[in-house]
Known about the structure:
Order of helices and strands: HHHHHHHHHHHHHHHHHH
Number of domains: 1
Number of strands: 0
Low-confidence stretches: 263-268, 270-275
Number of helices: 18
Strand content: under 5%
Distance between the termini: 36 Å
Shape: globular
Amino acid sequence: MLTAALERFRIESPAWLTAFFVAALPFRRYSEFTILVMAIYLPILLRQPEYRNRIKPVAKFLIPVFLCFWIPMLLSCFDSYDSGKSWAHTLAAIRFPMAALCIALLLSKNDLRRRFLQLVAFILLFWAIDGYVQLAFGRDLLGIPMSEDRLNALFYRRHQFYGPLLAFLSPLLLEYARRRWPAWAWASCLVLVLGAVMIAGMRAGWLAMGLVVMVYGILMIRQENAALRRMALLIPSIAVLVVLASYAGSEKVRERITSTMQLSLGTESALDEATSLRIPIFQNSIRMYRAHPVNGVGVRAFPAAYPEYAEPEDVWLFREGGPSHAHNVVLEVMADTGSIGLVLWFFGAVLIIRQWRRTPVTLRQEPFPYVFALALILFPLNSHFSIFGVYTSSLIWWLFGLWGATLIARE
Length: 411
C-alpha cells in the first residue's frame, strides 16, 4: 500500500511541485523554489525528442510575450539610476520563461492539471478560513498575530498582501468548485473568499474581487452553467450581505470604506486620502517618464530616482525606504522603461488577446482560470505590487506556464 502511494506521488509530483508555489507565497522567497527547480529542469526535459516537439506550440506564444516584457527591462539598464539592481533583475528574469515552459510541459496531461487545481483550491480555502480565525482570535491557525494595519492571515511579513493575492487567485478555486462540486459548495466558496478579501481591508483586493463577482455573475447565465444559474441570481445579494457583514464586523474595513468615500469630494487631498497617499507617487511617476521618455529611469530603480522628482514636502521622502514602485502597472512601465516599455507591453497585450481569441470557444474552459487570474493581476485601473519585482513576476509567469500547459494539451 505504501509502495502504491509513493508511486502515485511520483507520478503526480509535477502537480504537487507546481501547487507548492501557491502554498509558499505567504513565506516570501520560498515560492521561488518552484520557479528555480522548473527553470533548471527545462534543459533536462528538452534532451528528449518528445518534449522538444511538444514545446513548440507554447514556445511560439510565450517567448514573444516574454520578449515584450524583457527587452524594455534590458534597454532601461544602460542609463539606470540604479544600474546594479536593474541589471541583476533583468538577467535573472530569464528564469521566468524557462520555468513557464517547464510547467507547461509537465502539466500538459489533463489528470495532472486536475490534481494541481484540486491542491490549489484547498490551499486557497485554507487561506480564507485562516483569515476569519485571525480576525476572531487575533492569531491565525499557525499562531501568526494580526498586523497592526491590516488582516494578514499567514502572510506574516510586512508588505505581503493577503487580500489581493486571494482575490487574484480566486478563479482557480471557483473554477475547480464549479467543475467538481455541487452548486451550494461553489456558492459557499464564493462567500468565504469574498468575505476574507473584504475583512483583509485592502482596496486592491476589493476591486479585484468585484471583477470576479461581476464576471462570474455573467458566466453563470450561460447555457453550460445551467446548474448554477439560480446561483447567479443570488450573487448580487450574496455580495451585498458579505460587504455589510464585513463592515459591521471589522473596524479596519469601516476605516477603509470611510477613506474610500473621500473620492466623492473630488479634491486633491481627498483623492490622496482615498488612495492611501499615493497621489504624489503617481505624479512623480509621470515626471520621471517626461524626463526619461525613451527608456525610463531603469527597471526597479524607482526608489533611487524618486527623491530627484519629489516635492520637498512629499510625505514619502520622510518614510523609511520611500516608495519602491509606482503602484500602478501602466505608470510603472512608463517610469521604469519609458515609451519603449509602453509600446512593447502594448504588443504583448495584443499577442495575449490574439492567443485567447484563437482558442475555440468550446476549449476556453480549461485555460480560463489562469487567463482570468492574469487579467486580474494586470488590470490597469487597480493599485499594484511591483510588476517587475520578483514576487509578482514569478506569479505572472507561473500562470503563463499553466496556460501553456492547456495549449500543449489541446495540440
